[in-house]
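Task card 7
Instruction: Convert sequence to structure tokens.
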Amino acid sequence: MKILAIETATAMGGVALIEDENLLVEYRMDMTMAHAERLMVMVDRVLKDVGLAPDDLDGLAVSIGPGSFTGLRVAVSTVKGLVTGKPIPVAAVPTLEAMAWTVPAGDYSICPMIDARKQEVYAALFSCQEDGTLKRVMEDRVISPEELCERLRGPSSPPTVFLGDGATRYREVLEKQLGRRAVFMPAPLTRPLPSMVAWLGLRLLRRGEAADAWSLVPVYVRRPDAEVNWEKGVRPKKLNLKRTAGRASR
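Output:
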């Protein structure tokens, strides 16, 4: 199966293409403020580099969050655009789970963290099983680094491997709270990998766990500020078009 994967949950987004277990091509770049433009450029380049067209794909995989609201919306919209011409099975891959799978199996807990701003992170917790698979210990949530450390500080808790831009930003807090029980992944592996999203997507599709592309929505975990403000009665300011036009004509 040829699977094209899209990952835009953080500033370092990317696209990967695999055929069964083999990685054919992967591109990653800083996509800050330009997710839509750069994403389609990468999709086109990945396909052209291996001489394929969208109709040649057997499946799509997309990182559905949590993470950047804008990045996730662009990724889901792009997937819906790709399946418009031809129905292609789509796998919805949890971002934090894809990050956790980059950590080698061992006796440590695994805690992927994405910076959620407002002094909080998106985080989940996993443990490695004897067969090399991961078991989810804590569901995706938005949480402060200090509260997260409280959950990991039990007397029987194993050391924890942290990764993600949230772990990078709050490393001093984690080290202060957990000491030597806080372990950190190397910088190149601290971001979500499109190739891992592709691999997990392949597993989902082989198990028949395809998502409905048209009803697919990102997993934000935290509600967008615009939605919260709207419920509070805070409306966006209207642009005074007459005043703006008057200034432009001077």
